[in-house]
Amino acid sequence: MRQSLLRMLVIGASLALSGPASSEAADVEFNNPDKAVNAYGITTYLDLAKRFVPDIKSVENGYVGKTRTKIRHIGGAEFESKDADSYGLFDIASTIMNADGKKRRLVLFDFAQAADAAQGLAVLALYDAGIRNDFLDAVDVGFDESTYFFDQATLSVADGSDVILTMSSHFNSNQSYNSYSMLLVRNDRIEHIDTIPLLSDRTCAAEHNQEIRFASNPAKARPYAPITVFVTDMITPTGEDCGSEVPPQEARGEIRVTYSWDEATKAYRPDSDALKKLAVENGNRF
């Protein structure tokens, strides 16, 4: 199993906070493939993983499989991973969430490739949290090389309903790419609310960091509470001697977008396109 250094480095550059009336963040466990899923049976996390990579098996340095079961990507067909011919098994993270007033088990399988590829296969699977651990739904939530639950895995949006928060990332020597997804479970099916790409980087003259947090108040559920997304954009001069590179002015700004439930379309809708504009600006910085 992969060590947590990458996750700590990336999540350490971001922030997730719930609103005053929101419930505490769900506990996330990182599981060995041979660990039993619950106390009622002998099913292991490796058994669950074989639904998605049927031939995955233990090898000298971990787990590898060559075949995969096709499942829908939460962002649409254009986001499906198509450049991998083998799949390792790195993190297996799990948590318990609330969906439509029921307890559900979420398991996030990060099938990062055994060989280099631009985008990983990250399967988020939904199960009943009872004795039988029945499979309910699964989607690919991978938008980058590695995917995991955000530091706050779930956000309460109603009495008995949570939104799921995941993030995909990769980084190089001076840039960190992070995509944050919000997901809702209705009728035991995982639905996409939105994915927000952020970019942090460093030059000789300045650091440009973007951080994100989420807030909701379940008491305002109609039937789901609004979700407010805050993105803080910060430019900080390094003070280093960078020759002809002119240091920018120190700056700090915040983008705030609120997603509200639209009963007519049965979906969350943002109150502005500010995050989409930010994504375009970040794309121009790549």
How are the elements arranged and paired?
Layout: H1 5-11, E1 29-30, H2 45-49, E2 57-59, E3 62-65, E4 87-88, E5 92-99, E6 102-111, E7 121-128, E8 135-140, E9 146-158, E10 161-171, E11 175-186, E12 189-202, E13 206-216, E14 227-237, E15 251-262, E16 267-270, H3 274-285
Antiparallel strand pairs: 1-5, 2-3, 3-4, 5-6, 6-7, 7-8, 9-10, 10-11, 11-12, 12-13, 13-14, 14-15, 15-16
* N-to-C series of helices and strands: HEHEEEEEEEEEEEEEEEH
Number of alpha- plus pi-helical segments: 3
Distance, first to last CA: 31 Å
Total number of β-strand segments?
Answer: 16
Keywords: Signal
Signal peptide: 1-25
Primary descriptors:
286 residues, mainly beta, 8-stranded antiparallel β-sheet, 3 helices, 46% strand, disordered N terminus, signal
Kindly describe this structure:
The structure is a single chain. The protein has 286 residues and is mainly β. The protein has one domain. Helices cover 8% and strands 46% of the residues. The chain contains three helices and 16 strands. It has helices at residues 5-11, 45-49, 274-285; strands spanning 29-30, 57-59, 62-65, 87-88, 92-99, 102-111, 121-128, 135-140, 146-158, 161-171, 175-186, 189-202, 206-216, 227-237, 251-262, 267-270. The strands form three sheets. Strands 9-10-11-12-13-14-15-16 form an eight-stranded antiparallel beta sheet. A five-stranded antiparallel beta sheet has the order 1-5-6-7-8, with no helix packed on it. Strand 12 and strand 13 form a beta hairpin. The longest helix has 12 residues, at 274-285. It is globular, with a radius of gyration of 20 Å. It starts with a helix and ends with a helix. Keywords: Signal. Residues 1-25 form the signal peptide.
